[in-house]
Amino acid sequence: MAVEPGMVETVGVALVTALVTTVGTGWLVVPRLEARKRRIGEIHQARDKFLASMLRIVSAGARLRAMQEPAADDPGCTQEMRGRIRAERARWVRQLDEATEWMVDNVETYAPSWPAAVLREMIGTYVAYARAVAISERRADRKAELLTELTEPVWEVFGSRSWQRGPRLLPRSAERLAATITAMAAETDRQLAVASASAS
What is the C-alpha radius of gyration for the chain, rounded to an integer number of angstroms? Predict the structure, then answer.
């Protein structure tokens, strides 16, 4: 087969171009794509952990309220059983504490990933108040109740398939969250007023 004039040069240029493109892509583009893929993966993992923490709060809170500690004089409950129930309730309180602790310590990894400022503000408000409830001196059952009331409107917006209806649910959910926070503040004010009256 006869070689056309300029064919060797054309093939050579094509080979060099392919080599430069492959090496350049491997050195410049692939590492950036891998880093971007890793960052996106970390954001989605943090979002998943945030949603899982909310579910843990609701489920641990429900278990805590459902299983009350038996009275000391309850004849239907032995001392050993009372101790086991206490241990279970303490474990659920720890779960509430751990979930709120993770959310507040890692808020910067998942909150900025939502595009709208109103969503980021809702997350920040929820996380701060949820942690304040968890570390407060309230009784365990009241903590569970308040944490559930704080979590439910936020879950409506961010959890499950509700996110598809988020724009419609957001105003109502934000109102519910604000109402719970207002009720908490009023409760704290009453407790402080009682404490100061009994101290004087």
Answer: 28
